[in-house]
Specification:
Rossmann fold, 7 helices, 2 domains, alpha/beta, nine-stranded mixed beta sheet
């Protein structure tokens, strides 16, 4: 059995390649620009020329796909890789399974209806494309070659037109790799209050993420920090929700945490029904006291 991995980030390349090793005899990794050593039998890098968006690498990724002829394709669920993988799957008439949280014996487990339910699915075609949630193969160990090959960029027949490019501030942390995660919610009345959450994170060795309103309504966090069904799906050892109401759209992003805590001034907040430990109290009063004790 052959597996092909599409990944952008190094952590995802390592985890997905390690996971692919548990499913297949041969593993090929395709990534942009910088190779990742020791994770696959074959490592292929794609460099996109200046003036092209990375989505224009479609034909180059497809060329590698045709060369490998994989039985399964594991995909890091970034926007551009989902676009590339989806278009290749459409060409091949292949089954696509999204946001898999577990994958064994050809059966993928994933959430649906915004995380309300869990379903299992098996491909109806010889080749399966699977986008994989972070942490799915956290316990798998990668192995492979230190050599890498660069493939020539294949010009798309209909390239995308790059109208403008804007550099966004880089994300402060990779939440998918964090063992302890703190999420700030709408209970923070002002951006200045986030300093309390950052102090708390520093005390317990955690990384700070947020709920959707703080990335869109308030723009206090970069998009990469949003935890939830349309953001990051995490698998931390510890989760702490501060000022988080506990709506399902957010909680599905952290419901695999080993231990979970919540701080909210509303004692009837839904989050208290979904965590292991809860503290009812106002952020401005509770957090300074907690930080002083830590």
């Amino acid at each position: 059995m052959k597996a092909l991995v599409f990944a952008e980030s190094e952590p995802a390349a390592r985890e997905l390649s390690a996971g692919a090793r548990t499913l297949a005899d041969e593993v090929t990794l395709v990534t942009f620009d910088d190779p990742v050593a020791g994770v696959a039998d074959r490592v292929v890098t794609v460099t996109v020329p200046e003036g092209h968006p990375k989505e224009d690498a479609l034909e180059t990724f497809y060329q590698v796909y045709q060369d490998v002829q994989p039985d399964i394709v594991l995909v890091e669920p970034t926007r551009r890789l989902k676009t590339i993988a989806g278009r290749i799957a459409a060409r091949e008439g292949a089954s696509v399974i999204t946001d898999a949280m577990a994958l064994a014996d050809g059966v993928a487990t994933s959430m649906y209806f915004g995380g309300v339910g869990v379903r299992t699915a098996k491909a109806a075609t010889p080749v399966t494309f699977v986008t994989v949630a972070p942490g799915t193969f956290a316990d798998a160990e990668p192995s492979g070659t230190d050599a890498a090959e660069a493939v020539a960029f294949v010009e798309p027949a209909v390239p995308l037109t790059l109208v403008a490019r804007e550099d966004l501030p880089p994300a402060e942390v990779d939440l998918t790799a964090a063992e302890r995660v703190v999420a700030a919610g709408r209970g923070f009345a002002a951006e200045e209050q986030l300093g309390l959450a950052r102090d708390f994170c520093q005390k317990i060795g955690a990384e700070l993420g947020c709920t959707r309103p703080l990335t869109e309504s308030e723009t206090w966090f970069p998009r990469e920090a949003y935890i939830g069904v349309s953001g990051l799906i995490l698998n931390p050892e510890v989760y702490v929700g501060i000022g988080v109401s506990g709506q399902m759209q957010h909680m599905v992003g952290v419901d695999r945490a080993k231990v979970s805590f919540a701080i909210n001034k509303d004692k009837n907040a839904p989050i208290f029904q979904q965590v292991d430990y809860g503290l009812a109290g106002d952020i401005a009063d509770v957090l300074p006291k907690i930080n002083a004790e830590l």
